[in-house]
Amino acid sequence: MGTPKELIQPVNQRKSVSRQIKFFYLINPDSASSKLISSLSQEDTVDSKYEIGYTSSGEVKLEDKSAISQVVDKTIPSIVSINSTATQTTDWFGQPYSQEVEGSGSGFIVGKNEKELLIATNNHVVEGTETIKVTFIDGTQADAVIKGTDAAADLAVVTVDISTLDKKTLEAIKVAKLGNSDNIKVGQMSVAIGNALGYGQSVTVGYISAKDREVDLSDGYTSKKMILLQTDAAINPGNSGGALLNVDGEVIGINTVKYASNEVEGMGYAIPISRALPIINELMSREILAEEEQGYLGIIGNDVTEDVASYYNMPIGVFLNELAKDGAAEKAGLLPGDIITKADNVEITSITQLRDYVTSKRIGAEVTITYMRKSASEYKEGTLKVTLGKNPNLDTSEK
Protein backbone atom coordinates (compact mmCIF):
# COMPACT_ATOMS: atom_id res chain seq x y z
CA MET A 1 0.00 0.00 0.00
CA GLY A 2 1.59 3.26 -1.13
CA THR A 3 2.09 6.20 1.17
CA PRO A 4 1.01 9.56 -0.33
CA LYS A 5 4.05 11.84 -0.24
CA GLU A 6 2.00 14.85 0.79
CA LEU A 7 1.03 13.15 4.04
CA ILE A 8 4.52 12.53 5.34
CA GLN A 9 7.17 15.19 4.98
CA PRO A 10 10.60 14.36 6.41
CA VAL A 11 11.63 16.99 8.92
CA ASN A 12 15.13 15.82 9.78
CA GLN A 13 17.67 13.11 9.08
CA ARG A 14 16.55 9.63 10.06
CA LYS A 15 18.43 6.44 10.65
CA SER A 16 16.53 3.65 8.88
CA VAL A 17 16.76 -0.08 9.35
CA SER A 18 15.24 -2.33 6.70
CA ARG A 19 12.41 -4.45 8.04
CA GLN A 20 9.92 -6.99 6.81
CA ILE A 21 6.37 -5.71 6.36
CA LYS A 22 3.72 -7.73 8.12
CA PHE A 23 0.08 -6.87 7.49
CA PHE A 24 -3.02 -8.64 8.76
CA TYR A 25 -6.02 -8.11 6.50
CA LEU A 26 -9.41 -8.84 8.01
CA ILE A 27 -11.68 -8.96 5.01
CA ASN A 28 -15.33 -9.80 4.50
CA PRO A 29 -15.69 -9.20 0.74
CA ASP A 30 -19.46 -9.44 0.80
CA SER A 31 -20.08 -6.54 3.13
CA ALA A 32 -19.01 -3.02 3.87
CA SER A 33 -16.93 -4.31 6.76
CA SER A 34 -13.69 -5.21 4.97
CA LYS A 35 -11.00 -3.99 7.31
CA LEU A 36 -7.31 -3.91 7.83
CA ILE A 37 -5.93 -4.65 11.24
CA SER A 38 -2.30 -3.76 11.00
CA SER A 39 0.61 -5.03 13.01
CA LEU A 40 3.35 -3.38 11.02
CA SER A 41 6.96 -4.13 10.44
CA GLN A 42 8.17 -1.24 8.34
CA GLU A 43 11.16 1.04 7.97
CA ASP A 44 12.22 1.68 11.56
CA THR A 45 13.09 5.26 12.32
CA VAL A 46 14.64 7.11 15.19
CA ASP A 47 12.94 10.50 15.19
CA SER A 48 12.16 12.69 18.15
CA LYS A 49 10.06 15.07 16.08
CA TYR A 50 6.65 14.72 14.56
CA GLU A 51 5.13 15.77 11.30
CA ILE A 52 1.68 16.89 10.28
CA GLY A 53 -0.33 15.51 7.37
CA TYR A 54 -3.90 16.25 6.40
CA THR A 55 -6.51 13.98 4.93
CA SER A 56 -7.84 14.84 1.51
CA SER A 57 -11.43 14.40 2.65
CA GLY A 58 -12.08 17.98 3.69
CA GLU A 59 -10.71 21.48 3.86
CA VAL A 60 -9.18 22.68 7.11
CA LYS A 61 -9.35 26.42 7.68
CA LEU A 62 -6.25 28.38 8.61
CA GLU A 63 -7.47 29.16 12.11
CA ASP A 64 -8.24 25.47 12.62
CA LYS A 65 -4.67 24.57 11.65
CA SER A 66 -3.36 26.83 14.41
CA ALA A 67 -5.70 25.16 16.90
CA ILE A 68 -4.56 21.71 15.76
CA SER A 69 -0.92 22.69 16.28
CA GLN A 70 -1.78 23.64 19.84
CA VAL A 71 -3.52 20.30 20.36
CA VAL A 72 -0.46 18.47 19.05
CA ASP A 73 1.98 20.45 21.20
CA LYS A 74 -0.14 19.71 24.26
CA THR A 75 -0.72 15.99 23.64
CA ILE A 76 2.34 14.65 21.79
CA PRO A 77 4.26 14.09 25.09
CA SER A 78 1.63 11.47 25.99
CA ILE A 79 2.05 9.44 22.79
CA VAL A 80 4.62 6.65 22.37
CA SER A 81 5.80 4.42 19.56
CA ILE A 82 5.78 0.70 20.27
CA ASN A 83 8.24 -1.64 18.53
CA SER A 84 8.21 -5.37 19.09
CA THR A 85 9.83 -8.62 18.01
CA ALA A 86 8.27 -12.05 17.63
CA THR A 87 9.24 -15.41 16.19
CA GLN A 88 7.29 -16.50 13.13
CA THR A 89 7.42 -20.15 12.06
CA THR A 90 6.50 -21.14 8.51
CA ASP A 91 6.63 -24.34 6.50
CA TRP A 92 9.49 -24.32 3.96
CA PHE A 93 9.27 -27.35 1.67
CA GLY A 94 8.10 -29.54 4.51
CA GLN A 95 10.59 -28.17 7.02
CA PRO A 96 9.73 -25.69 9.77
CA TYR A 97 11.50 -22.38 9.30
CA SER A 98 11.59 -19.76 12.03
CA GLN A 99 12.52 -16.13 11.66
CA GLU A 100 12.36 -13.06 13.83
CA VAL A 101 9.85 -10.48 12.65
CA GLU A 102 9.49 -6.96 13.91
CA GLY A 103 6.35 -4.91 14.25
CA SER A 104 5.41 -1.39 15.22
CA GLY A 105 2.37 0.32 16.64
CA SER A 106 1.43 3.15 18.95
CA GLY A 107 0.22 3.77 22.47
CA PHE A 108 -0.47 6.55 24.94
CA ILE A 109 0.41 7.03 28.59
CA VAL A 110 -2.57 6.46 30.89
CA GLY A 111 -0.96 6.25 34.31
CA LYS A 112 2.18 6.79 36.36
CA ASN A 113 3.21 5.92 39.89
CA GLU A 114 6.46 5.59 41.81
CA LYS A 115 7.14 2.17 40.25
CA GLU A 116 5.79 2.11 36.73
CA LEU A 117 4.57 3.97 33.69
CA LEU A 118 1.36 2.53 32.21
CA ILE A 119 0.65 2.66 28.48
CA ALA A 120 -2.58 1.72 26.69
CA THR A 121 -2.55 0.19 23.21
CA ASN A 122 -4.30 -2.44 21.07
CA ASN A 123 -4.00 -6.10 21.94
CA HIS A 124 -3.04 -6.93 18.35
CA VAL A 125 -0.03 -4.61 18.65
CA VAL A 126 1.57 -6.69 21.42
CA GLU A 127 -0.08 -10.11 21.06
CA GLY A 128 2.47 -12.91 20.66
CA THR A 129 5.46 -10.61 21.06
CA GLU A 130 8.69 -11.61 22.78
CA THR A 131 10.20 -8.18 23.33
CA ILE A 132 8.57 -4.74 23.48
CA LYS A 133 10.28 -1.36 23.34
CA VAL A 134 8.57 2.01 23.62
CA THR A 135 9.95 5.29 22.31
CA PHE A 136 9.03 8.54 24.04
CA ILE A 137 8.77 12.10 22.73
CA ASP A 138 12.45 12.82 23.50
CA GLY A 139 13.61 9.79 21.50
CA THR A 140 14.43 7.73 24.60
CA GLN A 141 13.66 4.01 24.35
CA ALA A 142 12.71 1.71 27.22
CA ASP A 143 11.81 -1.95 27.62
CA ALA A 144 8.17 -2.73 28.39
CA VAL A 145 6.25 -5.81 29.48
CA ILE A 146 2.59 -6.68 29.11
CA LYS A 147 0.55 -5.80 32.20
CA GLY A 148 -2.73 -7.18 30.88
CA THR A 149 -4.64 -7.82 27.67
CA ASP A 150 -8.24 -8.22 26.58
CA ALA A 151 -8.32 -9.87 23.16
CA ALA A 152 -12.08 -9.50 22.76
CA ALA A 153 -11.92 -5.74 23.26
CA ASP A 154 -8.56 -5.51 21.40
CA LEU A 155 -7.04 -3.63 24.33
CA ALA A 156 -3.79 -4.00 26.22
CA VAL A 157 -1.76 -2.20 28.85
CA VAL A 158 2.03 -2.41 28.90
CA THR A 159 4.24 -1.19 31.71
CA VAL A 160 7.68 0.42 31.87
CA ASP A 161 9.84 0.30 35.01
CA ILE A 162 9.99 3.97 35.93
CA SER A 163 13.42 3.56 37.54
CA THR A 164 14.87 2.95 34.06
CA LEU A 165 13.84 6.44 32.87
CA ASP A 166 16.05 9.45 33.46
CA LYS A 167 14.88 12.77 34.84
CA LYS A 168 14.90 14.44 31.42
CA THR A 169 12.51 11.86 29.97
CA LEU A 170 10.21 11.99 32.98
CA GLU A 171 9.97 15.76 32.59
CA ALA A 172 9.27 15.47 28.85
CA ILE A 173 6.39 12.99 29.06
CA LYS A 174 2.96 13.28 30.63
CA VAL A 175 -0.19 11.28 31.21
CA ALA A 176 -2.85 11.70 28.52
CA LYS A 177 -6.06 13.53 29.32
CA LEU A 178 -9.05 11.29 28.64
CA GLY A 179 -12.30 12.68 27.27
CA ASN A 180 -15.85 11.36 27.05
CA SER A 181 -16.61 9.72 23.72
CA ASP A 182 -20.31 9.55 24.59
CA ASN A 183 -20.52 13.34 24.32
CA ILE A 184 -18.90 13.82 20.92
CA LYS A 185 -21.00 14.67 17.89
CA VAL A 186 -20.78 13.61 14.27
CA GLY A 187 -18.99 16.33 12.32
CA GLN A 188 -16.66 17.36 15.13
CA MET A 189 -12.97 17.57 14.27
CA SER A 190 -10.71 14.66 15.23
CA VAL A 191 -6.93 14.35 15.36
CA ALA A 192 -5.11 11.02 15.02
CA ILE A 193 -1.56 10.68 16.35
CA GLY A 194 0.52 7.55 15.97
CA ASN A 195 3.56 5.76 14.60
CA ALA A 196 2.21 5.64 11.03
CA LEU A 197 4.18 3.28 8.77
CA GLY A 198 6.88 3.10 11.44
CA TYR A 199 8.17 6.59 10.59
CA GLY A 200 7.65 7.99 14.09
CA GLN A 201 4.85 10.15 15.41
CA SER A 202 2.66 11.57 12.65
CA VAL A 203 -0.50 13.64 12.86
CA THR A 204 -3.56 13.53 10.63
CA VAL A 205 -6.75 15.55 10.89
CA GLY A 206 -10.34 14.78 9.98
CA TYR A 207 -13.84 14.60 11.37
CA ILE A 208 -16.01 12.16 13.29
CA SER A 209 -17.94 10.48 10.48
CA ALA A 210 -20.18 8.25 12.61
CA LYS A 211 -20.71 7.02 16.16
CA ASP A 212 -21.64 3.53 17.37
CA ARG A 213 -20.68 1.96 14.06
CA GLU A 214 -21.00 -1.83 14.24
CA VAL A 215 -17.97 -3.35 12.54
CA ASP A 216 -17.47 -7.03 11.71
CA LEU A 217 -13.88 -8.19 12.18
CA SER A 218 -12.61 -11.56 10.99
CA ASP A 219 -9.20 -13.22 10.93
CA GLY A 220 -10.35 -16.04 8.66
CA TYR A 221 -11.05 -18.34 11.60
CA THR A 222 -13.25 -16.39 13.96
CA SER A 223 -15.21 -13.18 13.74
CA LYS A 224 -16.48 -10.64 16.20
CA LYS A 225 -18.43 -7.42 16.23
CA MET A 226 -17.16 -4.19 17.74
CA ILE A 227 -18.91 -0.85 18.25
CA LEU A 228 -16.49 1.81 17.04
CA LEU A 229 -16.12 5.47 16.16
CA GLN A 230 -15.66 6.19 12.47
CA THR A 231 -13.33 8.98 11.35
CA ASP A 232 -11.94 10.21 8.06
CA ALA A 233 -8.63 11.18 9.68
CA ALA A 234 -6.04 9.00 7.95
CA ILE A 235 -5.31 5.89 10.02
CA ASN A 236 -2.45 3.84 8.60
CA PRO A 237 -0.50 0.71 9.58
CA GLY A 238 1.43 1.56 12.73
CA ASN A 239 -1.31 3.90 13.98
CA SER A 240 -2.90 1.00 15.83
CA GLY A 241 -3.08 1.74 19.55
CA GLY A 242 -2.56 5.46 19.06
CA ALA A 243 -4.84 8.24 20.24
CA LEU A 244 -7.80 9.80 18.48
CA LEU A 245 -8.23 13.27 20.00
CA ASN A 246 -10.79 16.03 20.08
CA VAL A 247 -9.87 19.70 19.64
CA ASP A 248 -9.40 20.03 23.40
CA GLY A 249 -6.56 17.51 23.27
CA GLU A 250 -8.55 14.81 25.05
CA VAL A 251 -8.36 11.16 24.00
CA ILE A 252 -11.76 10.13 22.64
CA GLY A 253 -10.73 6.90 20.93
CA ILE A 254 -8.00 4.33 20.34
CA ASN A 255 -7.16 3.96 16.64
CA THR A 256 -7.67 0.34 15.69
CA VAL A 257 -8.70 -0.57 12.13
CA LYS A 258 -9.30 0.89 8.71
CA TYR A 259 -11.36 -0.12 5.71
CA ALA A 260 -9.04 -1.98 3.33
CA SER A 261 -10.16 -1.28 -0.21
CA ASN A 262 -8.70 0.54 -3.20
CA GLU A 263 -12.14 2.00 -3.85
CA VAL A 264 -12.57 3.60 -0.43
CA GLU A 265 -10.75 6.41 1.36
CA GLY A 266 -11.15 7.97 4.75
CA MET A 267 -12.81 5.14 6.67
CA GLY A 268 -10.87 4.52 9.85
CA TYR A 269 -12.20 3.22 13.15
CA ALA A 270 -11.33 3.77 16.79
CA ILE A 271 -12.45 2.15 20.03
CA PRO A 272 -14.50 4.77 21.96
CA ILE A 273 -12.58 5.74 25.08
CA SER A 274 -15.72 5.61 27.25
CA ARG A 275 -16.10 1.92 26.34
CA ALA A 276 -12.39 1.22 26.71
CA LEU A 277 -11.76 2.97 30.04
CA PRO A 278 -13.33 0.39 32.39
CA ILE A 279 -11.30 -2.35 30.68
CA ILE A 280 -8.10 -0.29 30.75
CA ASN A 281 -8.58 0.40 34.47
CA GLU A 282 -8.96 -3.32 35.13
CA LEU A 283 -5.87 -4.16 33.06
CA MET A 284 -3.88 -1.48 34.90
CA SER A 285 -4.77 -3.04 38.24
CA ARG A 286 -3.43 -6.47 37.36
CA GLU A 287 -0.36 -7.84 39.05
CA ILE A 288 2.54 -9.29 37.08
CA LEU A 289 3.38 -12.56 38.81
CA ALA A 290 6.07 -15.19 38.45
CA GLU A 291 4.72 -18.37 36.89
CA GLU A 292 4.90 -20.31 40.15
CA GLU A 293 2.81 -17.60 41.89
CA GLN A 294 -0.01 -17.57 39.35
CA GLY A 295 -3.44 -18.93 40.13
CA TYR A 296 -4.75 -21.98 38.26
CA LEU A 297 -8.36 -22.81 37.38
CA GLY A 298 -7.90 -26.35 36.11
CA ILE A 299 -9.99 -26.46 32.93
CA ILE A 300 -9.72 -27.40 29.27
CA GLY A 301 -12.05 -25.29 27.18
CA ASN A 302 -12.96 -23.89 23.78
CA ASP A 303 -14.05 -20.47 22.64
CA VAL A 304 -17.74 -19.99 21.92
CA THR A 305 -17.44 -17.18 19.38
CA GLU A 306 -20.28 -15.05 18.05
CA ASP A 307 -20.54 -17.29 14.98
CA VAL A 308 -20.63 -20.49 17.04
CA ALA A 309 -23.06 -18.98 19.54
CA SER A 310 -25.41 -17.91 16.76
CA TYR A 311 -25.26 -21.23 14.91
CA TYR A 312 -25.77 -23.47 17.97
CA ASN A 313 -27.88 -21.05 20.03
CA MET A 314 -25.32 -20.93 22.84
CA PRO A 315 -24.01 -18.13 25.05
CA ILE A 316 -20.70 -16.49 24.10
CA GLY A 317 -17.88 -17.49 26.45
CA VAL A 318 -15.62 -20.45 27.22
CA PHE A 319 -17.10 -23.95 26.89
CA LEU A 320 -15.70 -26.37 29.47
CA ASN A 321 -14.63 -29.66 27.87
CA GLU A 322 -12.77 -31.13 30.83
CA LEU A 323 -12.02 -30.26 34.44
CA ALA A 324 -8.82 -31.23 36.24
CA LYS A 325 -9.55 -33.76 38.99
CA ASP A 326 -9.58 -31.98 42.34
CA GLY A 327 -8.78 -28.74 40.54
CA ALA A 328 -10.14 -25.35 41.54
CA ALA A 329 -12.99 -25.39 39.01
CA GLU A 330 -14.15 -28.89 39.95
CA LYS A 331 -13.98 -28.17 43.68
CA ALA A 332 -16.10 -25.05 43.21
CA GLY A 333 -18.83 -27.00 41.41
CA LEU A 334 -18.32 -26.23 37.73
CA LEU A 335 -19.19 -29.04 35.33
CA PRO A 336 -18.17 -30.11 31.82
CA GLY A 337 -20.55 -28.39 29.40
CA ASP A 338 -20.78 -25.20 31.45
CA ILE A 339 -19.94 -21.97 29.62
CA ILE A 340 -17.98 -19.36 31.57
CA THR A 341 -19.17 -15.86 30.67
CA LYS A 342 -17.58 -13.72 33.40
CA ALA A 343 -14.67 -13.73 35.81
CA ASP A 344 -15.49 -11.26 38.57
CA ASN A 345 -16.90 -8.32 36.57
CA VAL A 346 -14.90 -9.03 33.41
CA GLU A 347 -16.85 -10.42 30.45
CA ILE A 348 -15.10 -13.52 29.12
CA THR A 349 -15.18 -14.31 25.40
CA SER A 350 -12.09 -16.51 24.90
CA ILE A 351 -9.96 -19.07 26.69
CA THR A 352 -6.94 -16.80 26.21
CA GLN A 353 -8.68 -13.92 27.94
CA LEU A 354 -9.77 -16.18 30.82
CA ARG A 355 -6.25 -17.56 31.22
CA ASP A 356 -4.72 -14.07 31.24
CA TYR A 357 -7.16 -12.94 33.92
CA VAL A 358 -6.65 -16.00 36.13
CA THR A 359 -2.84 -15.84 35.89
CA SER A 360 -2.94 -12.23 37.08
CA LYS A 361 -4.32 -13.56 40.40
CA ARG A 362 -2.29 -15.28 43.10
CA ILE A 363 -2.71 -18.85 44.25
CA GLY A 364 -5.45 -18.83 46.86
CA ALA A 365 -7.21 -15.78 45.42
CA GLU A 366 -11.00 -15.98 45.17
CA VAL A 367 -12.62 -15.31 41.79
CA THR A 368 -16.36 -15.07 41.15
CA ILE A 369 -17.17 -17.12 38.05
CA THR A 370 -20.41 -16.50 36.17
CA TYR A 371 -21.43 -19.44 34.01
CA MET A 372 -24.30 -20.70 31.88
CA ARG A 373 -25.50 -24.29 32.36
CA LYS A 374 -27.87 -26.05 30.02
CA SER A 375 -31.09 -27.20 31.65
CA ALA A 376 -33.48 -29.05 29.36
CA SER A 377 -33.67 -26.80 26.28
CA GLU A 378 -32.26 -23.57 27.71
CA TYR A 379 -29.22 -22.17 29.46
CA LYS A 380 -29.53 -20.80 32.98
CA GLU A 381 -27.05 -18.46 34.64
CA GLY A 382 -25.24 -19.26 37.85
CA THR A 383 -22.33 -17.91 39.90
CA LEU A 384 -19.68 -19.66 41.97
CA LYS A 385 -16.80 -18.57 44.16
CA VAL A 386 -13.62 -20.29 42.97
CA THR A 387 -10.44 -20.39 45.06
CA LEU A 388 -7.58 -20.59 42.59
CA GLY A 389 -5.13 -23.43 43.00
CA LYS A 390 -1.55 -24.16 42.00
CA ASN A 391 -0.66 -25.35 38.52
CA PRO A 392 0.34 -29.01 39.00
CA ASN A 393 2.27 -28.97 35.73
CA LEU A 394 4.90 -26.59 37.12
CA ASP A 395 7.96 -28.17 38.67
CA THR A 396 9.07 -25.68 41.31
CA SER A 397 11.46 -28.02 43.11
CA GLU A 398 14.46 -26.10 41.79
CA LYS A 399 12.93 -22.67 42.34
Report on the structure:
The chain is mainly β and 399 residues long. The chain folds into 2 domains: 269 residues, Thrombin, subunit H, CATH 2.40.10; 97 residues, PDZ domain (Pdz3 Domain, Roll), CATH 2.30.42.10. Helix content is 14%, strand content 40%. A 6-stranded antiparallel beta barrel has the order 12-13-14-17-16-15. The chain has a 6-stranded antiparallel barrel with strand order 6-7-8-11-10-9. Strands 18, 19, 20, 21, 22 and 23 form a 6-stranded antiparallel beta sheet that branches. A hairpin with a 2-residue loop joins strand 20 and strand 21. It is globular and about 65 Å long.
Short note summarizing the structure:
It is built from seven helices and 23 strands.
What's the helix count?
Answer: 7
Distance between the termini: 50 Å
CATH class of the largest domain: Mainly Beta
State which percent range the strand residues make up: 35-45%
Quaternary organisation of the protein chains:
single chain
String of helices and strands: EEEEEHEEEHEEEHEEEEEEHEHEHEEHEE
Mean pLDDT: 81
Regions with little confidence, pLDDT below 50 for 5+ residues: 1-63
Query: What count of structural domains?
Result: 2
Query: Mind summarizing the main beta sheet?
Result: 6 strands, antiparallel, barrel
Share in helix:
10-25%
Radius of gyration, in angstroms, nearest whole number: 22 Å
Strand order of the largest sheet: 12-13-14-17-16-15
